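Recall from the previous lesson that a structure prediction takes nothing but the amino acid sequence as input. Here we apply that procedure to Suppressor of fused homolog from Gallus gallus. The sequence below is the only information supplied.
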Amino acid sequence: MEGTRPGGAAPAGGAGSGSGSSSFPSLFPPGLHGIYGECRRLYPEQPNPLQVTAILKYWLGGPDPLDYVSMYRNIGNPALNVPEHWHYVSFGLSDLYGDNRVHEFTGTDGPSGFGFELTFRLKRETGESAPPTWPAELMQGLARYVFQSENTFCSGDHVSWHSPLDNSESRIQHMLLTEDPQMQPVQTPFGVVTFLQIVGVCTEELHAAQQWNGQGILELLRTVPVAGGPWLITDMRRGETIFEIDPHLQQERVDKGIETDGSNLSGVSAKCAWDDLSRPPEDDEDSRSICIGTQPRRLSGKDTEQIRETLRRGLEINSKPVLPPINAQRQNGLNHDRAPSRKDSLESESSAAIIPHELIRTRQLESVHLKFNQESGALIPLCLRGRLLHGRHFTYKSITGDTAITFVSTGVEGAFATEEHPYAAHGPWLQILLTEEFVERMLEDLEDLNSPEEFKLPKEYSWPEKKLKVSILPDAVFDNPLH
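The prediction returns the following tokens.
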């Protein structure tokens, strides 16, 4: 990528909301022209903003899905305590050209391409005369994830990045997504484009979003000027979390919100596995042993769709949650709450319906052993307290295979695990039904998972009378099949 001024910004007076300029049809494809029009509405005095441009376009074989990232200087709003900042806008997640070179054209009524573009607001440092270009690479990274997985982002999603966004020593190491406060949806000849803003957050704020919900944490960030304020501007120099700035927020807002609402996170892609302890591991025909080094059975297309659909529905607060989950993806460092997908989001390259769905019988298991790495295990209390105690479900989908583990409560319809047979498997998909009483006991026994830095791996928890065992194992066990 290279930083440059655009060779063809929308001409003065020619920016529209959907049709290309008749004077410059080749320079301004209608989709591109529509987004420029919205930018010109906000920044009429900046017709030629600085722009980071993909040297070799994605549709010509280049690595960067975004053709351009425009960078505007926003004066903020002193009356609202909004500081001056840089405003970044992507071009490429939506359909810019309408000729199928990148996105399949599906009509004007639905979304254009993936239906959205990314934006980012970065606080301008004193004396800074030009915008930093690192946010453009950050946006390219998110765009690569969307293009590779075909999962889209939604307002309230979180992204676990696990690294300072600008590669500094900053505490801002993760992201939430929300509607851009100034940019309005654009109707183009290729569909509708909305604008999702990236908001940088600290690890503690990400965890709160996971345990409660992203929208709730975004609202709290809006109330703290130094943490984002009403326009949710990211300040990479911010050294305190909102909970350090105002300690009452955790107890009075987040903890009460979790107790009242539960968690909106319905599942994650994770390092996990499970063993059927009911049968000998060598009984390949009937045992579902995910022993390291063995080739697991594939999720059928129907199971994949069921799991995907349940996770997609997981954000909806229903009186009767419906199985089936899944879709928080953890891929290339990404992890977000919900991702409506244009294809089966759980599908690996070879996970087509190798085994016909009707030929895989559901099996009731007597005893199971669950295995998680430390990061995945740390989410078990969230799964139990934030989901199952609120009558919902939670799914772990293995990032190294087709294995899936879904915890369900007694209030979830459509599960093949029942109170009589709480452990049931359909191919590599395990469901575990836990009663409220057992959930409360597990939360007590798993208390130390809330402070994972205080225990050494491997760590094992066992409930012999329930014939259930949970192990927290080092990453190497999952990363190296022969370890």
